[in-house]
Design a protein that fits this description.
Length: 297
């Protein structure tokens, strides 16, 4: 059996934007045994997806952890992979080429058999860049990813029948990616439906600033987060993983960008996505956000 390795280690938004490439690789290799190399949070998210026959969650051992690196090298080297699709395309993932020396390699590693040989690749949107990489490896069919598997029992959350998903957080190390939470509150009050706030455990304080919101920050798995997003009437969020996930699920999504990230390179993609950008991010008003919603409540 033809054996394929796909590498995608993190982060949530990047993994979500790889759903399309995952589906394309599976469509191109329908009878192959495909293994995903990733990290624990995304292994749990992607269990049950139709794209992989096996998932390894040990894709990012510390460089000082010699034992874990040796186990990874032996595991990959002994698996008999005939081709590797490196969708992480980082310095780390490129080094993994030495773990599978006999395999064809799609990526940017030196000596790759199917290199993404576009010197302007870093100026491309993530999805366009990955599509071109796969095209250079011979993949021509790019079906829309089926996300019907992304579901969970949500009864414990007592979700409203109809609600807006709010994502007011983002990386704590990049405050310029956070639209002022007071603007989220104003938008929420103008929607005529309850709000559900999602994010990490440290972002509950943001949820408290949105009147009447159901605070699920730090309370969901990634699989549950996707299931919640699929049920939301709309999503308003910063440039962060949950916003990308909602957009990919088909939820009408408004993404707010500031000067710290460029929507031309990494805006969420989906069937109903609008983007606003301010410099600084606080220059985007609540009125502008309500007017730009891809869905009229």
């Amino acid at each position: 059996m033809n054996r394929i390795l796909v590498i995608k280690l993190s982060a949530l938004g990047d993994v979500v934007q790889a759903f399309g490439p995952f589906a394309a690789i599976r469509a191109h290799h329908p009878d192959a045994h495909i293994t995903l190399l990733t990290t624990p949070p995304f292994a749990a998210l992607l269990e049950g997806s139709p794209w992989f026959d096996a998932i390894r969650a040990d894709g990012r051992p510390g460089w000082g952890n010699i034992g874990a690196l040796l186990r990874l090298a032996r595991g990959l080297g002994g698996a008999g992979f005939s081709r590797v699709y490196d969708l992480q395309t980082s310095g780390r993932s490129s080094r993994y080429r030495w773990f599978v020396p006999g395999a064809e390699w799609s990526g940017i590693a030196r000596g790759a058999s199917h290199p993404h040989a576009n010197p302007a690749r870093d100026a491309m949107h993530t999805l366009d860049r990955q599509r071109e990489q796969l095209e250079m490896a011979g993949i021509r069919h790019f079906p829309a990813p089926d996300l019907s598997w992304l579901d969970a029992d949500l009864s414990r959350f007592r979700l409203p029948t109809r609600f807006a998903l709010m994502v007011p957080g983002a990386s704590a190390a990049r405050p310029g990616k956070r639209w002022p939470v007071e603007r989220f509150a104003k938008v929420a009050m103008g929607l005529g439906m309850p709000s559900v706030v999602v994010g990490g455990p440290s972002e509950s304080g943001l949820a408290a600033a949105i009147p009447g919101a159901l605070d699920l920050c730090g309370k969901t798995s990634l699989r549950e987060l996707g299931a919640i997003a699929r049920r939301a009437a709309l999503c308003v969020g910063n440039d962060t993983g949950p916003t990308h996930l909602a957009a990919a699920c088909g939820t009408p999504t408004l993404a707010i960008f500031g000067e710290e990230s460029d929507p031309a390179l990494c805006a969420p993609r989906g069937p109903a996505v609008s983007v606003l950008r301010g410099n600084p991010i606080g220059a985007v008003s609540a009125a502008a956000a309500l007017a730009a919603l891809p869905y009229r409540p």
